[in-house]
Amino acid sequence: MKAQRLAWAITGSGHYLRESLAILQTLQDVDVYLSRAAAEIIQQYGFQAQLEATGHKVYQDKTASSVPVERFYEGVYHTLVVSPATSNTIAKMAYGFSDSLVTNLFAQAGKTRVHSIVFACDTAPELESEAPRDHMVKVYPRHIDLHNVGLLKQFADTDVVEDMDALQDAIMQRLAGVHAVHLHAGVEVSEQQAV
Length: 195
Ligand SMILES: Cc1cc2nc3c(=O)[nH]c(=O)nc-3n(C[C@H](O)[C@H](O)[C@H](O)COP(=O)(O)O)c2cc1C
Description:
Elements: E1 5-10, H1 17-25, E2 30-34, H2 36-44, H3 48-53, E3 57-59, H4 70-73, E4 77-85, H5 87-94, H6 101-111, E5 115-120, E6 127-131, E7 135-139, H7 143-153, E8 158-161, H8 164-194
Parallel strand pairs: 1-2, 1-4, 2-3, 4-5, 5-8
Antiparallel strand pairs: 6-7
The structure holds flavin mononucleotide (FMN).
């Protein structure tokens, strides 16, 4: 059995982009997927070097059919992380759209029963958010934004986390579980070989 990997999708959000990249830097066996907006926002915030420093392979949203999502059907991934997730992507995911790379990843993860962990930007009615060039702005997510996050919380095989500590904990829990499965699979293989 080939060890499975983690897929991490980044959307076009400045909110907690820096922190998401910092967590990505600590992980191994990850493929990164960028929405078209994420590719722009990473440039605007000057975070291209941080993305490259993670050393992970990066997939861009270049095809209408989201070609890379076939990797879910090949069993490549054990988990999908979407962080940070914009109001736009949350709304589409909550209503079942799959018309972009990131919304397709979430849809295909669901259809292949791969667990998803989502950090939605809109966690509260009032937020402080990082804007380009290192300054903070006030953001007031609308009722519809918070409602959509609530809808997503009802999805099967999906954890919607509220902050970076919860994101890190959820990822660590998944990795521990997957590691145990891999170890177990390895034991089965060697026992069979011994017989
Ligand atoms: C500088 C900048 C920062 C942004 N930050 C956020 C954000 O924190 N949260 C959000 O929901 N949208 C944010 N946006 C808007 C999204 O990038 C925009 O809605 C985009 O269409 C999202 O596309 P995606 O969901 O496919 O990534 C930001 C836009 C700009 C220009």
